[in-house]
Amino acid sequence: xxxxxxxxxxxxxxxxxxxxxxxxxxxxxxxxxxxxxxxxxxxxxxxxxxxxxxxxxxxxxxxxxxxxxxxxxxxxxxxxxxxxxxxxxxxxxxxxxxxxxxxxxxxxxxxxxxxxxxxxxxxxxxxxxxxxxxxxxxxxxxxxxxxxxxxxxxxxxxxxxxxxxxxxxxxxxxxxxxxxxxxxxxxxxxxxxxxxxxxxxxxxxxxxxxxxxxxxxxxxxxxxxxxxxxxxxxxxxxxxxxxxxxxxxxxxxxxxxxxxxxxxxxxxxxxxxxxxxxxxxxxxxxxxxxxxxxxxxxxxxxxxxxxx
Length: 308
Hints:
The protein is an alpha/beta fold. Helix content is 35%, strand content 19%. The strands form three sheets. The protein has a seven-stranded mixed beta sheet with strand order 1-2-3-4-5-6-9. Strands 10-11-12-13-14 form a five-stranded mixed beta sheet, with no helix packed on it.
């Protein structure tokens, strides 16, 4: 498994990716312009399980007599609207509950402090707390990210696995070894037959693989293969971004990852430099199917090249 980047490697990324950041910086600026006002799209996954889609990562809400359980908190500016949506869906429920972060990125944890103030206790992988409480580097913009306020830090840390019995279901929270990042969790609901994969899966979108946080193409492919071996054809699978899908869509995502990996590996074996491999357009056969929404394609190919 590829180790987290050292400073000399990060400087190389900055050199190679400098021309690729215009797209991602524009996306981030656009996101910030509508985080506070973006419509929260609600869809029901099960009797007491809802998907809340907004400007940030996909949020899931479980309701019931045991109290709310929330997966991810989106951007900070989106949090008030998410709380309004929760109140509308659970008018009789007590405030607060449990919040589980799938990983540390701010489009999934930015609303943590607001949720904490609303009475949510935050659970995450141990490394998520480490990353939220210390300065980080953005994989997309290559800029420094200051620590989040202490109110946003998880109170309960997971190393490998946690089982929660809540609102008539069994929730299995599992650590995903370094793949998209080194902080990822998956959350499954047994009775509802729903799995939230966080940013291990981007449905219909080219993924962000955060090598600065320990992510790699090899780890991503390996962990997606493990999920494919475990889920059934009926399981509703929630990606970190994009629409709800199932095993067929996840299989196609896996085929895209392995296809790009194999092309890049073959070119790298021939002795081509990272820049030369990028120029060969190894994603071409998938470009009509997968959107370049978060990470520019050339930057993704660079990550694949470096993390084989």
